Amino acid sequence: MYYIGIDVGTSSVKALLVNAEGVVIKTTNPEYSFQTPKSLWAEANPLDWWKATQTAIKELLLTVASNEIAGIGLTGQMHGMVALNKAGNVLRPCIMWNDQRSHMECDEISKKVGYENILKITGNPVLPGFTAPKILWTQKNEPDLFKLIDKVLLPKDFIRYKLTGEFFSDVSDASGTSLLDVGKRTWSSEIFEALGWSISWMPEVTESTEPTSTISVEAAALTGLHSGTPVVAGGGDCAAQAVGSGIVEEGKVSVTLGTSGVVFAQSDQYRVEPNGNLHAFCHAVPGKWHLMGVMLSAAGSFQWYKNQFGLEEQKIENEGGANAYELLTTKASQVKAGSEGLFFLPYLSGERTPYPDPYARGCFIGMSLRHQKKHHTRAVLEGVSYGLNDSLSLMRKLGVDPSEIVLSGGGSRSALWKQMLADVFATPCAMVNALEGAAYGAAFLAAVGVGGFGSVEEACNSFIQKTETIHPGSDQEIYSQYYPIYKSLYPSLKNQFAQIADAISINS
């Protein structure tokens, strides 16, 4: 038998086919786009996700028969708001996880529920990326549309609805809405009452390994799947990524270098960072939680840098030469650790942790006539590494002290960056044989949900193995001197970032 994992990502649907031995048989990655119609906005058409999902499933079923699929697991970008009317039709483009328009609504929700109370209930401050402030923004700015809302779904759960006709979510994904009682693992009636909203908008919420529904006759005709195939609840992309990396036991920590950067630590108990500078979410492992730090622009910072300043390297790649990223990092490796005092703040999309600030902006600091392009390249990689260490340092204060950190995501393919992270963290880093990320974790959740394994831990321990260990080197001492300087920069510039945002608003 086989399992399908589907990851509804920011710019593509990634789907993979996994056999009963945990081996990935086939992957596919149909792409789509999202829009930024205004500053701080990010929106997408959910029907584009559905079209791409149909394409992805059809491609996988060219390899196996539909009746050989034992179960399907879902994951995807968190926090998005997909609003449906009573007929199940999409009311407006999804307001996505990286949309920052609703900062005023965050304060309003926090006042209505109570700042300390919202942190206690949800494990997090209310942030612009989360779902609840997007709902409130819609209520205030699109009142006629707001009155038509019958269901509010997260991105992967919209795909579940299209596959099954049923409304379900899971506790890990729901944790990022500011509407879930994370300690009790259920929707918070207290929050809904304080906001005057109907809790009936929300889908039933379950543990991540629960079989929620089955493929409908209509979806079977559109995808080629066998009607009645179980669809398991799945998890938010960060939790599913952690499952796919084996982070399913107390004290295990991973760092994912994707578009965003995620520092993830399993926890057997519900722990909340006192100042709300880390996320506390339900894990996709039933009955467990996790602490998480999220940097909005991690490998995304490097991608931006390559697109804007790596035109020469891109030309070489396009002409059949080496990969543009490899060309850039090869030059950067010639620069001494610390980039001769050049720092990069990676806040290109604002920031979430440990600085929940939609106005934060990226910048280079410390430039001199000595600095060349290779210095700037290395500074980008170092800035992201320092920012990830901000979250790891907070976790350590809460008693999480990993002996090893598992690396994943596209950025972890760089030998330079892997070593840099081990040096900045002052902790050995490891690579594992599971490289397919959140979609792989979703397939594992599907396998557990339909009885292929007794638990998530059993599934992970059976198939996930360490393939490489990167030990801290001599640059560890250099970074220990530079990191405190980096850490001081955002507090020094916070007010200026807000002033810049005001100036843009006035003159836009």
Structure overview:
- The protein is of the alpha+beta class.
- The chain folds into 2 domains: 2-246 and 435-467, 2-Layer Sandwich (Nucleotidyltransferase, domain 5); 298-398 and 415-424 and 473-503, ATPase, nucleotide binding domain (Nucleotidyltransferase, domain 5).
- It has 18 helices and 23 strands.
- A 7-stranded mixed sheet has the order 17-18-16-15-21-22-23, with helices on both faces.
- It is globular, with a radius of gyration of 22 Å.
- The termini are far apart.
- The model has no long low-confidence stretch (mean pLDDT 95).
The overall number of domains is 2
The unreliable regions are none
- CATH fold group of the largest domain: Nucleotidyltransferase, domain 5
* Number of H- or I-type helical stretches: 18
- Order of strands in the sheet with the most strands? 17-18-16-15-21-22-23
Give the rounded overall mean pLDDT: 95
Structural class: alpha+beta
Q: What is the number of E strands? A: 23
* Range of helix content: 25-40%
Radius of gyration: 22 Å
- CATH domain class of the largest domain: Alpha Beta
CATH superfamily of the largest domain: ATPase, nucleotide binding domain
Strand content: 15-25%
The span between the termini is: 57 Å
Principal-axes shape call:
globular
What's the architecture of the largest domain in CATH terms?
2-Layer Sandwich
What is the strand and helix layout of this fold?
Layout: E1 2-8, E2 13-19, E3 24-28, E4 43-44, H1 46-60, E5 69-76, E6 82-84, E7 94-95, H2 103-113, H3 115-122, H4 131-141, H5 143-146, E8 151-153, H6 155-164, E9 168-170, H7 171-174, E10 180-181, E11 186-187, H8 189-195, E12 204-206, E13 211-214, H9 217-223, E14 230-236, H10 237-244, E15 253-257, E16 261-267, E17 279-282, E18 289-295, H11 299-309, H12 311-318, H13 324-332, E19 343-345, E20 363-365, H14 373-397, E21 405-408, H15 415-425, E22 429-432, H16 438-449, H17 456-463, E23 466-470, H18 475-507
Parallel strand pairs: 1-5, 5-14, 9-12, 15-21, 21-22
Antiparallel strand pairs: 1-2, 2-3, 4-7, 6-8, 10-11, 13-14, 15-16, 16-18, 17-18, 19-20, 22-23
Helix pairs in contact: 1-6, 2-3, 2-4, 10-16, 11-12, 11-14, 12-13, 13-14, 14-15, 15-18
